[in-house]
What we know:
Elements: H1 2-7, H2 13-22, H3 27-36, H4 40-46
Amino acid sequence: MAKDLYVAGKLDSEGYQAIAKQFNLNQTTLKRHMKDFLNEDTIKQVYSLS
């Protein structure tokens, strides 16, 4: 979902809130995931995007 939002140019606060809602994440968990792997650098690396 994060990759799709990134590609669509919508990986912003609204996009992150949609992810949180979809996967039932509270704000603390969402922030931890954003730091660990739900970020542009990791998405680019994992999916070989530029």
